Amino acid sequence: MVEYLIFLTISTSIFALFGLGLNLQWGFTGLINFGHVAFMTLGAYTTVLLTLKGVPLLLSAIIGAVVAALLGLVIGFSTLRLREDYLAIVTIGVGELIRLVVNNQDLPVGNEWRSGAFGVQSYPIPLATLVPNLFIKLLLIGVLTLLAGITLWQLWRWIGVSQVSKVAKSQKKVGGKQELISRLVIGVLLAVLTVAVYISGAIALYNYNPIAGLMLMSLIVLAFVFWRLEILVRSPWGRILKAIREDEEIPKALGKNVFWYKLQSLMLGGAVAGIAGAFIAWQLSTIYPNNFEPQETFNAWIIVILGGSGSNLGTVLGAIIYFIYYEGTRNLDRIIALDSDRLSALRIMIIGLILMILMIWRPQGILGKKEELTLGK
Hints:
Layout: H1 2-28, H2 37-52, H3 57-79, H4 84-104, E1 106-109, E2 112-115, E3 120-121, H5 134-159, H6 161-170, H7 176-206, H8 210-234, H9 236-247, H10 249-253, H11 258-284, E4 286-287, H12 295-307, H13 312-328, H14 340-361
Antiparallel strand pairs: 1-2, 3-4
Helix pairs in contact: 1-7, 1-8, 1-11, 1-12, 1-13, 2-3, 2-4, 2-11, 3-11, 5-7, 5-8, 6-7, 7-8, 8-11, 9-11, 12-13
């Protein structure tokens, strides 16, 4: 049970990172990217191929993120001066192009060239060979404790019970009580999950398991990326991105280089997705081109729409809800007699139905702001 929860935590962290990259591009800037998986593919393959050449793991992951950002630069220069639908079309094509090239070309795996269709195996994974003594174990648990403590403290600040209560009582804000209740429910849910992950992680780190080390790394990176993105989107730079999303003619009239800001958003979002690619390669320990099909992009869209576009916390929440649903319906065939193909189709239909209901009930997503809704613009 502990290992299973750790596996889910790693998966959720990876797709939260993946979704944060897309949320920066679409939720904050209004760029429609239907080929987001291309950045993840480049990040994953660059990382593992470089590590097989002897490049240190962390440096390989950073280079993978840079390569993914350069892909954003190439796509941006060719499409961002055109209409928005050109970006959507080009990104779909680039995503499939990269996957097919990787599938059909020989790759430099170690000291030999191997067909990409056979995948890449036996590459180094972070902390896999670590044999920690008691001090190192306690240090790792201490880092996990710090992360859990910061998370719980930030959740308490985000709930803001006293502040929202005053708003609800004064009735100056429509739906104040509903906001208080929703924040309490979501905050308690996230707090319970945080405690569960902490307990499982502490046990696995003390009885050291390499996947626990990978989980800790993924959580540290997710926390760092989330923190920096929150600072960025609240800065003047982030406000310009939001202005571009609403009406790019306004920042143009104020003398802002809209093209350059769009390019930065596309590149930074691509780099974040490239980091997610490195982690998914480390988690799987063997990667194939079919691991990066277009469905992964639309999983990221589901996560962002579900949690609320333009909300980084909403994206993380969307990833949590998505994986709770995904794993909760994995054994649905025990209730409904269906083969694997029909079960997969049914699960997609159910999540589609959930999104349709959400679009009717709360089109901005669970934590999105209605005044920042980008759908239909």
